[in-house]
């Protein structure tokens, strides 16, 4: 079948790879002139890694992934360890190690695997129209293409979603700003093989190991939306936001490169259950835009990719029947992930001070199993279990 994918992000590329493996002719159209990763890195939990393993990418993703053996929460003000434990029981239970990875490294690997010759850049979709068994797509440069199936992997601002739902839904501001980037691994920031999160005052400073001796870092601060975004002010602002925090966090702020640091106002979208209309279907953030608070955004896009490709392969009552089965399989799980991330976001970022202070107290009593069971609950239930 001829298939067009709009968007060359994680979801679009993984979907394209999966569909090609089943023999489909797939072309990706991306609106940007040059593909740049959105964000410095991504935490690929075991369900996302399993999707890539299923596509034959086990060795490649393992090379890109950081060695994350332990997890710790640290009091950001005092530097006192609140809880610290091995992730090995989690890995044993779910059957796969998680991998924090650089987004640029992951995106380049996926583009090479899909085939760069089938990715067309500078193609911004303006409109789409269904005509019997075909979908007609119009681009801003005046060109048009037709296809048997259109997959919208065009992200949180998805035009494809507006077509499927009949309206452009509004994003919801989650209440905090995230700065993220990469720094060299150094023991004066955190242990090299540990995911370390400094918490306090509804804020976070977190470090995760990725390949090539680097930490992926992010810093979260509850702030109003719409504040000025000036790179030259990043370090001075962060020093103020994290004033009186422990030396490790101060050192991180000193070492980050403002020119290579991303600043993002975090949003999500109210979950909805309609993922397709005719021969147009949604994957990834176009279908279920979520906050990054449980690390499942990219993983859920990869689950979409595998199940959509399999639904088209194993169901023979027609394309729309397969899309209906994909929708029924995916919409409740992804809705749950969006709402679970939203709940975690509110606790972490002190939407209610008493609730967050209770969480801090619980962290000091935590031995590992409760946190790991929460992560496992996110991982299990995917299409490959």
Quick rundown:
The chain is an alpha/beta fold. It has 13 helices and 18 strands.
Which helices and strands, and how do they pair?
Elements: E1 2-6, H1 10-21, E2 25-29, E3 41-44, H2 46-54, H3 58-64, E4 70-75, E5 81-86, H4 88-94, E6 99-102, H5 103-114, E7 119-120, E8 125-131, E9 134-139, E10 144-147, E11 149-152, H6 159-165, E12 172-184, E13 194-200, E14 203-210, E15 214-222, H7 234-241, H8 247-255, E16 262-268, E17 276-277, E18 280-282, H9 285-288, H10 297-314, H11 319-348, H12 353-365, H13 369-379
Parallel strand pairs: 1-2, 1-11, 2-7, 4-13, 11-18
Antiparallel strand pairs: 3-6, 4-5, 8-9, 9-10, 12-15, 12-16, 13-14, 14-15, 17-18
Helix pairs in contact: 1-5, 1-10, 2-10, 4-13, 10-11
Keywords: FAD, Flavoprotein, Monooxygenase, NAD, Oxidoreductase, Purine metabolism
Cofactor: FAD
Pathway: Purine metabolism; urate degradation
Low-pLDDT residue spans: none
CATH architecture: 3-Layer(bba) Sandwich
Which assembly state applies to the chains in this document?
single chain
Helicity level, as a percent range? Answer: 25-40%
Total separate domains: 1
The percent range for strand residues is: 25-35%
Kindly identify the CATH topology.
Answer: FAD/NAD(P)-binding domain
CATH-assigned homologous superfamily: FAD/NAD(P)-binding domain
Please count the beta strands (DSSP E, at least 2 residues each).
18
Structural class: alpha/beta
Count of individual helical segments: 13
* Strands in their spatial order, largest beta sheet: 5-4-13-14-15-12-16
CATH class: Alpha Beta
Major pleated sheet: 7 strands, mixed
pLDDT average, as an integer?
96
Q: How far apart are the first and last residues' alpha carbons, in Å?
A: 28 Å
Shape: globular
What is the gyration radius calculated from CA atoms?
A: 21 Å
